[in-house]
Amino acid sequence: MAEDHFEPPRAPLKDIKEPPRQRSNLLAIIIGALVDFVSTQISTVVILLVFAIAAGASGTPLPDLQTQLSDSDVLFAIGSAVGLSCSVLGGYVCARFANQNEYANGLACGFVGVISGELMYPADTSMLMHLFGLLTIPACVLGAHIKMRRQKTQERAE
Predict the structure, then answer these.
(1) Is 16 part of any domain?
(2) Closest CA to 24 of 98, 88, 101
(3) pLDDT at residue 20 in the model
(4) Rounded distance, CA 77 to CA 11, Å?
(5) What is the pTM of this model?
(6) Angle 50-34-38 from CA coordinates, rounded to 5°
(7) What tens digit of pLDDT does each residue of 96-105 get?
(8) How many CB atoms lie within 10 A of CB 54?
(9) What domain count does the chain have?
(10) For a disulfide at 32, which of 1, 20, 97, 109, Cβ 3.0-4.6 Å?
(11) What is the distance between the alpha carbons of residues 158 and 100, in angstroms, rounded to a whole number?
């Protein structure tokens, strides 16, 4: 029997995956910190606006409104939770962009976030705010961890 030269190969063919693209760690840290900073600032403005509209609708005078904004525990809790969520997002973006050294990049992004936060606080800020700002570091590392978990889940699915 003659051999058919036009027969497809019998060996199983697998898709050849390209290795993930790795980018600059410094650029990833800058981008992650910017995402954290900008999203925190935007969400803070939105939260303050909603709170001011709600307080203004109830007939609160302007001087009392300023006092309520600075002394509200509810506003502090909501702002802190949203701010930490923005830090998680920044750490995720940092790790995703670099695609290497994810935890180290998330840690560095957190340090940049703490430094920028310290520069933004007024001089009379309470020690609690400074200590709470340190939670930015584990939040950014959590974002990098989420990126790593998603990557492992995707690799298992393939």
Answers:
(1) no
(2) 98
(3) 72
(4) 60
(5) 0.80
(6) 15
(7) 998 888 999 9
(8) 10
(9) 1
(10) 109
(11) 20
CB-neighbour burial class of residue 133 (10 A; exposed 0-12, middle 13-18, buried 19+):
buried
CA–CA dist 8, 102 (Å, integer): 42
Q: Give the domain range for residue 87.
A: 25-157
- Residue 4 pLDDT: 62
Residue carrying structure tokens 């995703």: 96
Burial classification of residue 72, based on how many CB atoms lie within 10 Å of its CB (0-12 exposed, 13-18 middle, 19 or more buried): middle
How far apart are alpha carbons 92 and 142 in whole angstroms?
8
Tokens linked to 150: 């998603």
Structural domain includes residue 3: no
**133 falls within a domain:** yes
Residues 95-123 as b or e (16 or more Cβ within 10 Å = b): bbbbbeebeebbbbbbebbbebbeeeeee
* Beta-carbon-side half-sphere exposure of residue 32 (alpha carbons within 13 Å): 43
